[in-house]
Backbone:
């Protein structure tokens, strides 16, 4: 799918913020969009659930993985989209300190009273006196001590599994976010696949502790967003990829491997405006703040986002098309696990953006189609990174992206042997490269010719 499909989305707040950040920071467009989706999921996951067209209600939370090399401006992009949430987290920490100090002082005063009353009770017991009224007073004071204040920890970074689930026990909506995801991949939180899968699906998990009582986590929500260098992701895949994939964890992820913009990021003397990003951040902060306030009031109910009749029909058509493509020779022949979650991820993206943009009623067909475009575009990256074998069309798409980047950065032509040596890993054998070139040649996207005995590939791709 052409990236231009992602530049006309019917979500004005998100679209304008992505355009602005992409123009100012000059990171890859797909990376910028994924950062925006991570922030939207983090803000909205505690406010809504999604009713799938066949009737099941599921969380709206997303798992997002961006494989982008060093220097793609992952950190600066993520920081811009999370500035509202990070600001809210800082404010929440200050409020928590104030609440905790007040609670601590109140508890200390009441503990002194309890201590004095219990001391008096001991004296009276020794003398054989009446203590029932004093014991009632002790119980009244104990019951008047409020619960210890809870810190709403919205964002977790390099965190252990016990710390993550302990945080979710206190506040049930959180995000595991890292723009240098190597640390997260090595940590225990991300590698507890069964728990992460259950949380993604909205199920109940049991958390065992060695030195404290075990507890049950139910109805919690967790957004995961990892931006990581492809080499680190490849090493992780070699070490734990089979387990990760077999567990179904990888299938739940929306994966992106963006086209690099390095070599094209020229600057001028203009001052960057951040009006659209600021509006985006104000929105994420407002939504998440309201979620926190509802939690403090004891209200954990979430709005269920449904689909319009047209959107339901379109989703069912998409679901059935994906299912058909899992068969032999289909687009997802070697990525059936990924395909099994694709329609649900599209529904989650559509519901999140519908709610975030403040749209009324049910999700419109237009919104669902845009969400499908997003997920289908990113789906190519999943196949390129993780499929053991690829059909010709997928190999051709991988080659198309590589040649387009080569044309932008270097030249309109390339030696065929250079593709075999330096191209994408999946094209570094003659058979795969030939299959990909044949598809592009039939489309007139490339010319193949000899120059002084060297096989050359001429690049006709425009975008």
Residues:
């Amino acid at each position: 799918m052409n990236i231009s499909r992602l530049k006309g989305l019917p979500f004005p707040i998100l679209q304008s913020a992505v355009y602005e950040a992409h123009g100012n920071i000059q990171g890859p467009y797909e990376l910028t969009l994924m950062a925006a989706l991570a922030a939207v999921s983090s803000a909205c996951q505690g406010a809504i659930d999604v009713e799938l067209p066949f009737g099941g209600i599921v969380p709206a939370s997303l798992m997002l993985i961006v494989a982008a090399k060093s220097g793609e401006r992952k950190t600066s992009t993520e920081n811009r989209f999370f500035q509202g949430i990070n600001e809210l987290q800082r404010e929440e920490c200050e409020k928590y300190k104030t609440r905790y100090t007040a609670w601590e002082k109140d508890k200390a005063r009441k503990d002194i009273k309890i201590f004095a009353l219990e001391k008096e009770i001991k004296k009276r017991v020794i003398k054989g006196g009446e203590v029932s009224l004093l014991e009632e007073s002790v119980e009244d004071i104990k019951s008047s001590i409020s619960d210890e204040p809870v810190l709403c920890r919205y964002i977790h970074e390099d965190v252990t599994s016990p710390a993550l689930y302990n945080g979710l026990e206190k506040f049930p909506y959180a995000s595991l976010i890292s723009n240098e995801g190597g640390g997260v991949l090595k940590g225990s939180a991300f590698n507890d696949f069964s728990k992460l899968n259950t949380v993604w699906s909205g199920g109940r998990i049991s958390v065992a502790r060695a030195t404290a009582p075990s507890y049950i986590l139910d109805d919690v929500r967790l957004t995961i967003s990892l931006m990581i260098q492809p080499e680190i992701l490849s090493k992780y895949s070699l070490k734990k990829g089979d387990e990760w994939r077999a567990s179904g964890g990888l299938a739940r992820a929306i994966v992106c491997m963006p086209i690099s913009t390095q070599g094209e990021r020229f600057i001028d003397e203009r001052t960057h405006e951040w009006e659209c990003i600021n509006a985006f951040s104000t929105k994420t902060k407002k939504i998440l703040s309201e979620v926190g306030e509802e939690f403090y009031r004891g209200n954990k109910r979430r709005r269920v986002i449904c689909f319009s009749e047209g959107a339901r029909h379109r989703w069912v058509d998409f679901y059935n098309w994906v299912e058909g493509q899992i068969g032999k020779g289909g687009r997802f022949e070697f990525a059936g696990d990924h395909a099994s979650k694709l329609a649900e991820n599209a529904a989650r993206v559509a519901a999140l953006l519908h709610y975030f943009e403040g749209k009324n009623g049910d999700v419109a067909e237009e919104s669902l189609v845009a969400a499908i475009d997003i997920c289908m575009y990113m789906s190519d990256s999943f196949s390129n990174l993780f499929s053991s074998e690829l059909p010709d069309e997928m190999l051709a798409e991988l080659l198309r992206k590589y040649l387009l980047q080569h044309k932008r950065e270097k030249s309109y032509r390339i030696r065929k042997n250079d593709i075999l040596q330096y191209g994408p890993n999946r094209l570094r054998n003659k058979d795969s490269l030939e299959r990909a070139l044949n598809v592009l040649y039939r489309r007139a996207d490339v010319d193949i010719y000899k120059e002084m005995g060297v096989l050359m590939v001429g690049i006709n791709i425009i975008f």
